Amino acid sequence: MTVLSLPPLDLDAGGAPEDDSPLRSVSTAVSVLDCFADEAELGATRVAARLGIAKSTACRMLAALATGGLLERTGSGRYRLGLRLFEYGQLAVDRLMLRDVALPAMGELRELVRETIQLGVSVGTDVLYVERAEAAGMNVRFRSEHRRNPAHSSSAGRVLAAADPALITAILERGLQRYTPFTVVDPLRYRQILAITRDQGYATSREEFEPGWSSIAAPITLTRGGRPHPVAALSVVGPTSRVLGPRKPAVVQGVRRAAARISADLERARG
């Protein structure tokens, strides 16, 4: 993995660099990235206004961060968090031992339900699958373009959004894009589904991203402020007839138990 090297930028309005401009560039880069904690997509004008810097400086900083993969430019010309941040974030995930703790339960769940098991985390308004345990004999393998899916069209995204009002707002502001005839694109209906998800403790997605494929997910949680807070999602994905057909109760029970086990193991690992 290449380490991003930012050029020194003259951050004062007059354009005259100061002796500590490299350090100021790093500080500004961090501030720019912090802006995306509150908003999924931003343009240079908005970033400049929030940070009190010149728009030209914001433009150059956004472009530099995008070149390094920390941001990515959207079709509208705005920016959102990039996959390179996911790579850096993997260090934190590994230290949290999420993947190490989850893998045994994922393997056991795969053997139980005979379907593919996914471990996902939220990045912006998407879900990134940081680990996947493929079911034996699957005729569709995990492909790179499936590593990141829109949160609104996945069961994993729903269990993560159900307990996160800021994420719900970001998803709705981004817009509910239709991928199949079954994708939920009505904001009111989407909110109703999230309310159901909160009540029942799991979420489903029926052919909303790929025809013929559906999923069921449960949240993996850590206690924060005395309450469980979702930090990841465990999901079972497979052909609709197998996941949401007569076997659905068994799949729901299996994924919820596995997610609860991972949550408990994470709490113990955290000490």
Automatic annotation (TrEMBL):
Alphabetized UniProt keyword annotations: DNA-binding, Transcription, Transcription regulation
Transcription keyword on record: yes
Domain HTH iclR-type: 23-83
Stored InterPro entries: GAF-like_dom_sf, HTH_MetabolicPath_Reg, Tscrpt_reg_IclR_C, Tscrpt_reg_IclR_N, WH-like_DNA-bd_sf, WH_DNA-bd_sf
Lineage: superkingdom: Bacteria
Matching Pfam families: HTH_IclR, IclR_C
Residue span(s) of domain IclR-ED: 84-268
Disordered: annotated segments: 1-22
Gene Ontology biological-process entries: negative regulation of DNA-templated transcription
Single Gene Ontology MF annotation: DNA binding
Name of the protein in its database record: IclR family transcriptional regulator
